[in-house]
């Protein structure tokens, strides 16, 4: 299976418990809403339909997760949990916030920040077997460019 990266311009980072820019029990991560984005490129293909993107990610074994709806009137929304691996010496994540390079020590400042614009590039890991027996790819941050909301 070919290695395909995912690039999202105008991405929406989910708030609250979906953000873990402070090092927690399982490291650093954040969740990207797969329904709301300005521009999405998967592999070399530009995708405009969010449902098509979700289908392509699931076909490529990416671990797409769904929110729990607050009532039966709402459908679950797909999202992708993106892990940040600062220990990767060969391909560390590249994080830029308002033109300033961020490192692991500065990452915690993003926990409660309000984002104006987010561009993210995500790489998949090799498929691994999950507890339920399915083979899935974990998403890892390649680069993250953020403009903070000053208001």
Which short descriptors sum up this protein?
151 residues; mainly beta; 7% helix; two-stranded antiparallel sheet; 43% strand; globular
Regions with pLDDT < 50 over 5+ consecutive residues?
none
Summed over residues and divided by their number, the pLDDT gives a mean of 90
- Helix content range of the residues, please? under 10%
Q: Which radius of gyration do the C-alpha atoms yield?
A: 15 Å
- H/E element sequence: EEEEEHEEEEEEEE
Give the count of helical stretches.
1
The gross shape turns out to be globular
The strand count comes to: 13
Biggest sheet descriptor: 11 strands, mixed
SS-based class: mainly beta
Cα end-to-end separation: 45 Å
Quote the beta fraction: 35-45%
Q: Can you offer a commentary on this structure?
A:
- With 151 residues, the protein is mainly beta.
- It contains one helix and 13 strands, in the order E-E-E-E-E-H-E-E-E-E-E-E-E-E.
- The chain has one helix spanning 50-59; strands at residues 6-9, 19-24, 27-33, 39-42, 45-47, 64-66, 78-84, 94-97, 100-102, 115-124, 128-129, 135-136, 139-148.
- Strand 8 (94-97) and strand 9 form a beta hairpin.
Short description:
It is built from one helix and 13 strands.
Explain the layout of strands and helices.
Blueprint: E1 6-9, E2 19-24, E3 27-33, E4 39-42, E5 45-47, H1 50-59, E6 64-66, E7 78-84, E8 94-97, E9 100-102, E10 115-124, E11 128-129, E12 135-136, E13 139-148
Parallel strand pairs: 7-13, 8-13
Antiparallel strand pairs: 1-4, 1-10, 2-3, 3-7, 4-5, 6-7, 8-9, 10-13, 11-12
